Amino acid sequence: MLNILKIKKDKEFLRFLFRKYGTLVALVALICVFSLLEPRFFSLINFFNIVRQITVLFILGVASTYALINGEVDLSIGWVAGLAGILAVGAQAEGYSTFVAIIIALIIGLVFGLINGFTVAIFGIESFIATLGVGQIANGLIYLYTKGAPIIGLRESFIYLAAGKIFGVPFPLLIVLVIFLITDYHLRNTSTGRFLYAVGYNTEASLMSGLNVKRLKILSFTITGLFCGIGGVIIMARLGSGQPTAGPGNLLNAIAVSYLGASVLKEGEFHIFGTLVGAVFMGTIINGLTILNVQYYYQFLSTGILLLIAVGLAGKKKH
After folding, report:
1. Which CATH topology does 36-313 take?
2. The pLDDT of residue 11
3. Cβ neighbours for 185, distance < 8 A, ≥ 6 positions apart
4. What local confidence, expressed as pLDDT, does residue 136 receive?
5. Is 128 within 8 Å of 251 (Cβ atoms)?
6. Model's pTM, two decimal places?
7. Element of type H or E holding 166
8. 3-class secondary structure, 136
């Protein structure tokens, strides 16, 4: 009898370890496998390449994480990022400075975030439907503005955001670190961050506690929109031009890294450190497969499988 109880306890402990550290172990395993298969993978140059590749993943993952923390989902992320980036490139093409172009992108992100927030919080439309509709509006505006053609005319200062270096350190790495430190501090160490979590865990209890749930939901979507604006700028800076189709394809990956992050350390809780790990995880897979010359359709298959695994690992998220 004691042996049976011991076995059960051991199994429970192993399940706990898997839920808490499984993604980190899998990441280390991936790095080891790719390094053995291709020695070029484990190098400083390739590490910097991965950083550049995960910058957009992480930024849009943070956008998705803020919505998910609040108990909602934002399906407009890719389209809003695309619109913000396109209008930033368009501003450059019309002679505006890089600074003004970035501000335009941030404003677009904030405006669409507010629209999502009001649609969900004030009008009571389910976030799944509301953000999908708002995303389609953003997509329509992209093609209305571009007529389906790419926009060229980016300045070097704009491209620098995705390809530049400071003392040999890629500028995207600094962007990732700054965003990580600010958002992680906000969610863990401020009352507003804790309130966002509270609403996501239990909306009714938050209302009974006197929290302004509607205002918090609007704030959550607004922050999500802001990071969509930032992500849109980096997307276009990486491409070196304004591509109408560049934004929407990032939605799946943004959600995937958020869910992967929910399986890191905190057993189903969305958090910024987890989102960063999720971005590195996905970036490692994409980079490793690319170095090994794996066909792009296998990369899509890997991304889809990864999302399913992520949802399974984070399936016990608390509400």
Report:
1. ABC transporter involved in vitamin B12 uptake, BtuC (1.10.3470)
2. 59
3. none
4. 96
5. no
6. 0.89
7. strand 165-166
8. helix
